[in-house]
Amino acid sequence: MADLAENASPAAVTDRPVGGPLVVLSGVEKHFGPLHVLQHVDLTVHRGEVVVVIGPSGSGKSTLCRTINRLETIDSGTITIDGRELPAEGRDLARLRADVGMVFQSFNLFAHKTVLENVTLGPVRAKGVKRSVAKDRAMELLRRVGVADQAHKLPAQLSGGQQQRVAIARALAMDPKVMLFDEPTSALDPEMINEVLDVMVGLAREGMTMLVVTHEMGFARRAAHRVVFMDGGQVVEEADPETFFTAPTSTRARDFLSKILTH
Ligand SMILES: Nc1ncnc2c1ncn2[C@@H]1O[C@H](COP(=O)(O)OP(=O)(O)O)[C@@H](O)[C@H]1O
Ligand SMILES: [Mg+2]
Which CATH entry fits the domain spanning 20-106+179-261: 3.30.70.270, 3.40.50.300, 3.20.20.140, 2.30.40.10? Predict the structure, then answer.
């Protein structure tokens, strides 16, 4: 966990303006049996905006991400991406999935395919991109995340930080409109966290729309336009990172921050 004082540099990299709404959740409700995991969630992520979602374990952060690319259905409310409501199934759903890149805590790479194949496969299979074109683009992305020299290895031969950067490249290969990151550094050894966060900051600088579940406050301060605090399936509070970390208004956010800042 990053220490707040160590990351107190005030200059956010994201002073650039953001565009219109890209991902819009409106009155979203979700139950798992009797458990009300998303309680009337309203959340808008604008084009080019970086939103960090923070909150205690079990507060619904992963479920929120999973509903946005329809890995989970919702009970009621609406979710639109670029003005279009999430399709239920079929070809439209596949297209939507291509619009939403997702990076998980566990890297989820195909274990028996090389790094290069991992990044090439999606565009070839789901978008019908020619293999040679997809390969060139994959190499370009692998260079961008700093692992081009690992292209012909299997994932298990890479460090966790390298694997997670491959996972980012793989998501980017689909040319997503928005990238979702669900605790992308939580499974990494401490010395590998920054190499992944640096890639994410780079993406943020380039204007990628991002929803990032993370407790890395250094990242939030460097790259987020907005912090959204969730607790008990609700969006309890949202603010710019400086305001949120220095002057949270809700008791629940203050309690949470005091816990993560003191251990
Ligand atoms: N597939 C599922 N079936 C039943 N309960 C689930 C399922 N996925 C998550 N939950 C529960 O929903 C709540 C929210 O989980 P999650 O979205 O993973 O929270 P977070 O990511 O904030 O830790 C938790 O109580 C969790 O146990
Ligand atoms: Mg989670």
Answer: 3.40.50.300
